[in-house]
Automatic annotation (TrEMBL):
Pfam families with a match to the protein in the record: EF-hand_SWAP70_N (PF25530), PH (PF00169)
Cell compartments where the protein resides: Cell membrane; Cell projection, Lamellipodium; Cytoplasm; Nucleus
Record GO cellular component, one term: lamellipodium
Gene: Swap70
Name of protein: Switch-associated protein 70
Database matches in Gene3D superfamilies: Pleckstrin-homology domain (PH domain)/Phosphotyrosine-binding domain (PTB)
Domain of life: Eukaryota
Ranges of residues in domain PH: 203-299
Coiled-coil boundaries: 309-530
Length: 579
């Protein structure tokens, strides 16, 4: 009864959701009681649909009434087709697609009933892709066409990306669109739907025309046989309008083949407890198919198993539930793994942050170290630059000192040369002193002449001083010109050629001045030589005593102190005599 209740609820759900419960709930309840052969309970019906706030008119409120006053009273003695047709009538107008379909309304009704049979036991009702594939395969097989698995796989992929399954109306649109029945006419599709409907909904395991032998008159009459899980019904024709009888099947029944007799072929016998039935098939193949189908049905009754299509549906559902449970378990494990992974990620993130902090500290320390290194490098560079400058200055000083040393050495060599000359002059002076003793008397006589000579000498001396002053002025002028030229050279490099000319002119002037200096020096030398030669008044400078030098008209160090004292006494005596 639980399975029957679930099947009834699916059809009722479609009708219930399609109606406005406040206006049509009473109609639905009344019709359900009628088609399900359940006694009416007007009091409970009015109580449920009264117009006040306590009347439970919602989906949840209607279910207790439906279960208590209708479904729990269902005995199974009702016409399933009429029940489904009543629910179909209430919901089809509102939900059936307005677009033209390749199937009739009757075929759409049968597809809707098949949907309720194959749909999942959860609301809102949907049929999953596996059941859609099962149904389409059954229809394709009934039409005698080949199943296009690749086409359905593409459709399944597109379906799974958007939702879990199809509703009843979407399934009707799919079959009515002819997507999986291309090349088939409407009649073939309708016959296939009817065949699948008979098998899945009406539990028709096999049907067809055969001859049946009568029990009273023993004549053979053609009948339309319909095999169901517990009964074989036979009718006048396949429209099922004129039923002639039933063969009740149970676990004690059996079926066996009979030899041909009385001109009838392909005979077989159905034995029941109270009666047996002789039947003749149209050919041996049909005979064997019917024997196997009846024997399989009897075996199922003995085992207490449901019909094959229901058992297959239950197995598919159990398999899906198992897969779903495995998937949920897998998802749970994945969540646990994900949680563990997240925890690991958090731990890794914490470790990463610690590493980043350590790296930041290391980077900061490295930065400080690099900064210190840069500072040390800068300081070292400055010290190196300073040392380089000091070394350059020292090199310049060394070069300067070297130059000065060279000049000093040159001066020393000049002084040594001069010393040699002085030595020679000293020898000459010694010789001159010897000669001086001889001419000393002559010098005394020539003192008076010396005054005249001294005047002349002073004149020459003044001329020499003037010449020297002129030479110094010219030197100063040349120095000024050189400074001006150096400033002009630094200020305007573009005037290099002009400065070169000026430098040449300056060199020419310098040569002239040099010539003048040489001339003046030669004049001075010639004058000194003349004086020394003629007068003997010039004495060479030689290293003498540390006593103060005495300067006379004859020049510095011309006489010794003793000689000068003697001369002074002589001059004083002459002066006293003259007075």
């Amino acid at each position: 009864m639980v399975g029957l209740k679930e099947e009834l609820l699916k059809s009722i759900w479609h009708a219930f959701t399609a109606l406005d419960l406040d206006r049509s709930g009473k109609v639905l309840s009344h019709n359900l009681c009628t088609v399900l052969n359940v006694p009416h309970d007007p009091v409970a019906l009015e109580e449920h649909f009264r117009d006040d706030d306590e009347g439970p008119v919602s989906n949840q409120g209607y279910m207790p009434y439906l279960n208590k006053f209708i479904l729990e009273k269902v005995q199974g003695n009702f016409d399933k087709v009429e029940f489904n047709r009543m629910c179909w009538t209430l919901c089809a107008k509102k939900n059936l697609s307005k677009s033209p379909l390749l199937i009739s309304d009757e075929d759409a009704f049968k597809v809707w009933v098949i949907f309720n049979f194959l749909s999942e036991d959860k609301y809102p009702l949907i049929i999953v892709p596996e059941e859609i594939e099962y149904l389409l395969k059954k229809l394709t097989e009934a039409m005698g066409a080949g199943w296009q698995q690749e086409q359905f796989d593409h459709y399944k992929i597109a379906l799974n990306t958007s939702r879990e399954g199809l509703s009843a109306w979407e399934l009707i649109d799919l079959i009515g669109s002819g997507q999986f029945s291309k090349g088939m006419d409407r009649q073939t599709v309708s016959m296939a739907i009817n065949e699948v409907f008979n098998e899945l909904i009406l539990d028709v395991l096999k049907q067809g025309y055969m001859l049946k032998k009568g029990h009273k008159r023993k004549n053979w009459t053609e009948r339309w046989f319909v095999l169901k899980p517990n009964v074989i019904s036979y009718y006048v024709s396949e429209d099922l309008k004129d039923k002639k009888g039933d063969i009740i099947l149970d676990g004690n029944c059996c079926v066996e083949a009979l030899p041909d007799k009385d001109g009838k072929k392909c005979l077989f016998l159905i034995k029941c407890l109270d009666k047996s039935f002789e039947i003749s098939a149209s050919d041996k193949k049909k005979k064997q198919e019917w024997i196997q189908a009846i024997q399989s049905t009897v075996n199922l009754l003995r085992a207490g198993s449901p019909p094959p299509h229901k058992e297959a549906r239950q197995k598919r559902k159990e398999l899906r539930q198992k897969l779903l449970a495995e998937q949920e378990e897998l998802e749970r494990q994945m969540k646990e793994l994900q949680t563990a992974n997240e925890n690991k990620q958090k731990e890794l993130e914490a470790v990463r942050k610690q590493l980043e902090a350590a790296a930041a500290r290391a980077a900061e320390e490295e930065k400080k170290r690099l900064q210190t290194q840069v500072e040390l490098q800068d300081r070292f560079s400055l010290e190196l630059e300073r040392e380089k400058m000091v070394r350059q200055k020292m090199e310049e000083q060394v070069a300067q000192k070297s130059s000065e040393l060279e000049q000093y050495l040159q001066r020393v060599s000049e002084l040594e040369e001069m010393y040699k000359q002085l030595q020679e002059a000293l020898e000459d002076e010694k010789q001159a002193r010897q000669d001086e003793e001889t001419v000393r008397k002559l010098q005394a006589r020539l003192l008076e002449e010396e005054s005249a000579k001294r005047a002349e000498l002073e004149k020459w001396h003044l001329q020499q001083q003037q010449t020297i002053q002129m030479t110094e002025a010219e030197k100063q002028e040349l120095e000024n010109q050189r400074l001006i030229k150096e400033q002009a050279l630094q200020a305007a490099m573009q005037q290099l050629e002009q400065l070169e000319l000026e430098r040449k002119e300056a060199l020419e002037q310098y040569e002239e001045v040099k010539k003048k200096l040489e001339t003046a020096a030669n004049n001075t030398k010639s004058w000194k030589d003349k004086v020394a030669h003629h007068e003997g008044l010039i004495r060479l400078i030689e290293p003498g005593s540390k006593n103060p030098h005495l300067i006379t008209n004859w020049g510095p160090a011309a006489f010794t102190e003793a000689e000068l004292e003697q001369r002074q006494k002589s001059w004083k005596g002459k002066k006293a005599t003259s007075e």
